[in-house]
C-alpha cells in the first residue's frame, strides 16, 4: 500500500490491540536508513500485539557513505499520519541505526571522554550528537554518533524514551539467548539497506562486532569470508545465522550458501511464538523489535 511517501511492507495487529490503551503497552521503534519498523508489546498479556514496517519512497539508491539512520522530516511526516504513535506508552524504546560507533570495555570507559573515543575511529563532516549506551550482556559501552537534527527530532517526539544503538540492541538480543548455546563461535549477520553487521560470540562473550557497507551480494560474501579468515574461523565448520533484510529464496542467501556450510536464520524466542501470528520470516527480519527485554533497558 502506497500513501504519502510511505510503502507499508508489514502490517500485523492482534484483535486485542486498542489505540486507546497505549499507556499499558511497550512501544519499540527501529529508525532505519530508509524507513521505520515498530512493535507493540502488551506486558499484561506477555505477547506482542502489533508489528508494522514501512519504507520511505525515494530511497532506491543504496547509500555509499556511512549510514546514520533516516531523515528527520520523513519521520515527522510518518508519525503525523499515525498520531497514536505519540500517545503515552508504558515504555518506549528507540533503536537508531548508525555506522558511526565504537565499543569501549566497561572497566576502561570514562563518560567525559566519549567524544574522544568516537573521533579516534570516525571522522564526520556532519554535526553529530554523541551518545553512549551500556550493554549489560557484553559489559561494554557502545559510543555512537547521530545527526543532531535527527536526535533532536526523536527526543522532541519521545522525550521519555530509551534510545538504543542498533548494534547494541542486536547484541543485547542475541547474546543472552545464545550465551549458553552449544554452538562454537556462532556468527551473526544482520542485513540492512546499505550496510550489514557481523557479530561473533566466543565462550559466551562478545568477540567481534563491525558494520560494512554493501551494494551487491558479492560485497556481503567478501567481507564475511574476510572476517572469518582474520579470526581463524573455518567457513566449513562455523555456524552462521542470518537476520534482517534477507530471505531463504534470495540471491544473497544462495551466494552465501556456496561458501558457508552451516547457514541458517535466527528464530524467535518463546515470547514471540506466543504472540502475533506472524510469517516465519518475521522472526529473523525483526529480531530486535521482537525482543520484549529491550524495553527494560
Sheet with the most strands, sense and barrel status: 7 strands, mixed
Series of secondary-structure elements, N-terminal to C-terminal: EEEEEHEEHEEHEHEEEHEHEHH
> Can you tell me the number of structural domains?
2
Number of strands: 15
Q: What is the CATH topology of the largest domain? A: Nucleotidyltransferase, domain 5
N-C termini distance: 34 Å
How are the strands ordered across the major sheet? 1-2-5-4-3-6-10
Assign the CATH class of the largest domain.
Alpha Beta
CATH architecture of the largest domain: 2-Layer Sandwich
Number of helices: 8
- How helical, in percent, are the residues? 10-25%
The named CATH superfamily of the largest domain: Protein of unknown function DUF3822, N-terminal domain
Q: What is the residue-mean pLDDT, rounded to a whole number?
A: 88
**Percent of residues in β-strands:** 25-35%
Structural Rg: 18 Å
Structural class: alpha/beta
What labels describe this entry?
297 residues; alpha/beta; Nucleotidyltransferase, domain 5; 2 domains; 7-stranded mixed sheet; 5-stranded mixed sheet; 15 strands
Amino acid at each position: 500500500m502506497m500513501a504519502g511517501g510511505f510503502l507499508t511492507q508489514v502490517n500485523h495487529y492482534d484483535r486485542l490491540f486498542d489505540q486507546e490503551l497505549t499507556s499499558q503497552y511497550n512501544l519499540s521503534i527501529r529508525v532505519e536508513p530508509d524507513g521505520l519498523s515498530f512493535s507493540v508489546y502488551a506486558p499484561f498479556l506477555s505477547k506482542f500485539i502489533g508489528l508494522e514496517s514501512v519504507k520511505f519512497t525515494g530511497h532506491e539508491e543504496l547509500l555509499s557513505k556511512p549510514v546514520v539512520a533516516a531523515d528527520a522530516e520523513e519521520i515527522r511526516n510518518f508519525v503525523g499520519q499515525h498520531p497514536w504513535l505519540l500517545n503515552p506508552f508504558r515504555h518506549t524504546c528507540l533503536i537508531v541505526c548508525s555506522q558511526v560507533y565504537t565499543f569501549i570495555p566497561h572497566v576502561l570507559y570514562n563518560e567525559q571522554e566519549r567524544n574522544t573515543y568516537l573521533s579516534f575511529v570516525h571522522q564526520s563532516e556532519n554535526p553529530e550528537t554523541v551518545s553512549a549506551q551500556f550493554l549489560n550482556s557484553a559489559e561494554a559501552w557502545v559510543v555512537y554518533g547521530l545527526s543532531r537534527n535527527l536526535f533532536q527530532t526523536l527526543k522532541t517526539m519521545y522525550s521519555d524514551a530509551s534510545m538504543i544503538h542498533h548494534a547494541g540492541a542486536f547484541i543485547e538480543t542475541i547474546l543472552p539467548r545464545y550465551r549458553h548455546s552449544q554452538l562454537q563461535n556462532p556468527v551473526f549477520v544482520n542485513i540492512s539497506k546499505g550496510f550489514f553487521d557481523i557479530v561473533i560470540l566466543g565462550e559466551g562473550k562478545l568477540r567481534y562486532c563491525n558494520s560494512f557497507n554493501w551494494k551487491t551480494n558479492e560485497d556481503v560474501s567478501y567481507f564475511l569470508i574476510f572476517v572469518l579468515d582474520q579470526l581463524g574461523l573455518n567457513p566449513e565448520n562455523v555456524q552462521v545465522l542470518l537476520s534482517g533484510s534477507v530471505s531463504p529464496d534470495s540471491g544473497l542467501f544462495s551466494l552465501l550458501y556456496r561458501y558457508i556450510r552451516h547457514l541458517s536464520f535466527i528464530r524467535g524466542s518463546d515470547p514471540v511464538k506466543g504472540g502475533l501470528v506472524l510469517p516465519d520470516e518475521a522472526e529473523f527480519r525483526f529480531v530486535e523489535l521482537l525482543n520484549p527485554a529491550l524495553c527494560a533497558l
